[in-house]
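ok so i was messing around last nite and threw this chain in just to see what happens. nothing serious, just curious
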Amino acid sequence: MSEATQQRPEPTRRQEPNRAAPQGRRARIRQWLRRAAGADGHERHTAALIGKSALAATVAWVVAHDGIGAQSPAFAPFSAVVIMQVTVYQSVVQALRYVGAVAAGVALQGALGFLAGPDVLTFVLVALVAMAIGRWRRLGSQGSQVTTAAFFAFSTYVSASGNAERLGQLGQIVLLVLIGCGIGVVVNVTILPPMRYRSAEHGIHTLSHSLCDLVSDIAPALREGTTDEERTRHWRQRAEHLPALVDQAQSSVNVARESAYYNPRRVLRRHGRHTTFSGYQEVVDALARVTHQVTSLVRSLDQWHDGERGATYGEFLRHYGDFLSSLAHITALFSRIDEDHLTDQARELCSAAGTAQERHSRLVGHSERSALPVGDLSQPYGILLVEATRLMDEFQYTCDVLQHEVEHERTSGCP
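result:
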């Protein structure tokens, strides 16, 4: 382990407080505000989104009310808030969908209104067609805005005195929505555009930490030969919760990747190497396969908890426990992965993978020297050896992925 790695604090661990945090509404509000003003986290993102939404809404209102003197200026700030999303990419996508939905609803009302007149039958027809258009998959979550815009347009259409005024009012609705969406996107792009690459790390931390806890519990139990039914059943229950953590990690990487689209912060030195997140995606995919193999291993151990208890089996389990202990060390390193220290951590992971390979070879060598019946499916040796080999392959690949990413960034000239 390098000196730099030894000196730096583990980024995912926090010191335990000496006493419990004070309770009460005011105390919780103060704690939330401190977290919002502190390091990068959920509270800070929430506070930034609230502040930017309020700013965008205010600017949109001033432009709509004071700038163009619109009769219904609320459309502009409402639109600015609707499209303010956690990523710039989503703001752009939702703005396009929202404008399209509103334009469709207004155009529908305008066409049917001029053809059939402002009566109840026209309203029924507008409602039916608008709801059908709103289910168009390309509009996504903004599909309901087709109906909303059509109803507002119908109200405006009925209250207007002539066709020229009606056309002007309907056109103004679309203009206000364009103003609000434009201001919302500009504010989200120019003021603290969200960059969520840390969420990818957090997803890997959570998944790796859970894997580390489970494997770290299994390894000493195998060395001590305490694989009773109650213990193995508990391992199996814990392993069944791992796929949900894989899904969370995949979602975190997707958000991180998406936050780089159209984001001006990606050109800055600090964020320049986090525009694709290909390395994190491959790490999560590899850890997902590791999770599957760990679950399969636990299932095999649970199946053989009442199996043979001879000296040969006990020595086999001791070697197996040593091997799993080395894998637990790898997962512990992944649970502390930090993009600012990937070079040192990749070196540590390569070293840890080498140790795991040695212990795996020792396990296989013991099986061969002891002439264990690995081909006998009524005995656990063959199955457990297959699981060990698959685990070793997946862990080695996971370490290689991170090492390859570090070498790629170094040779491509990234900071």
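not much to say yet. The CA atoms of residues 219 and 325 lie 5 Å apart.
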